[in-house]
Write a structure and sequence with these properties.
Length: about 180
């Protein structure tokens, strides 16, 4: 029954306190130069790796908060899940096997700059399931894994259609072209 209450978490109305609390969870990470370098690399469509990771992080935060899970670890792991710091579209940079190898590269980079808890480590290294065989151990990892796929689909569709629409609570807020 609890899971059904969580289903509407991503669509629930954003409160100012949510944005402030989310920001408090990840502000120290966003201040790091290595995290800011993620903005140099395109992830999907027009979205940079940083923008993609922020979207995954925020969606994961909201779902985990609504479900009474460790939303701080989900937000932080979601932000760091793609901290691989190379252009995966370039085969010479590792793009050919990127889907299989980047979780471990992201984990190495994250562990080089800060101390991670076990949930954050699990999120980073297992977010590519089922492409990689490592099955998520924590509920927060499952949430980030699914949030990553939702955000990726959204970014892909924006690239295909050329439409950039931003939604909140089922209502279109604005469109950019």
């Amino acid at each position: 029954m609890e899971w059904f209450r969580c289903q509407s978490a991503a669509r629930s109305t954003l409160r100012h306190s949510d944005a402030e609390e989310y920001s408090a969870c990840v502000a120290d990470l966003l201040a790091l130069e290595q995290v800011q370098r993620m903005d140099m690399f395109i992830q999907h469509g027009r979205a940079t790796c940083l923008k993609h990771s922020q979207a995954v992080s925020f969606l994961s935060y909201r779902i985990c908060r609504k479900c009474k899970l460790d939303y701080r670890s989900a937000a932080r792991g979601g932000l760091l899940h793609d901290l691989f710091l190379y252009d995966w579209h370039d085969p010479a940079a590792g793009g050919r096997w990127h889907g299989f190898t980047h979780p471990k590269a992201a984990l190495r980079n994250a562990e080089d700059i800060l101390s991670l808890n076990r949930i954050e480590r699990d999120i980073i290294v297992k977010h590519m399931w089922p492409l990689t065989p490592a099955v998520p151990r924590f509920r927060e990892t499952w949430v980030v894994c699914l949030a990553d796929k939702i955000v990726t689909c959204h970014e892909f569709m924006e690239g295909v259609t050329g439409r950039h629409e931003h939604w909140n609570n089922g209502k279109k807020l604005y469109k950019t072209d």
